[in-house]
């Protein structure tokens, strides 16, 4: 077994990266319609399992960002807004500012709610 990298086994990271799209297709549409309590669990999942993939996250970045943007409209939870900002900052840190900003603008353009 290979040495752990950042708390993750290299073999696990390789396998998860290969099947990331399978998990993403089911998870990303879930966030916008989830309850506030579940949104925190979702963000924890993103922070613990997706962000450690670093640049391997780029292929699913449009879906991830598109799923998180509607959470910014939720005015009932200031804590959720803070957690979303932290998550967006972590994503930008690991994929690079260029990819993040480009994907963010693409997502805003494509999301109907983001146009208002």
Oligomer: single chain
Low-confidence stretches: 1-5
The tally of strands reads 2
Mean pLDDT: 83
Any idea what the shape is?
globular
Residue share in helix: 55-70%
Number of H/I helices: 6
Structural class by secondary-structure content: mainly alpha
Query: Distance N terminus to C terminus?
Result: 51 Å
User: Strand-residue fraction?
Assistant: under 5%
Tally the structural domains: 1
Rg is: 14 Å
Biggest sheet, in brief?
A: 2 strands, antiparallel
Strand order, main sheet: write it out.
1-2
In N-to-C order, the SSE pattern is EEHHHHHH
How is this structure best summarized?
This protein has 116 residues and is mostly helical. It has helices at residues 10-18, 20-27, 36-50, 61-68, 78-95, 97-110, and strands at 4-5, 8-9.
Structure description:
There is one protein chain. By secondary structure, the protein is mostly helical. It has one domain (20-115). It is 62% helix and 3% strand. It has helices at 10-18, 20-27, 36-50, 61-68, 78-95, 97-110, and strands at 4-5, 8-9. The longest helix has 18 residues, at 78-95. It is globular. Residues 1-5 have low confidence and may be disordered.
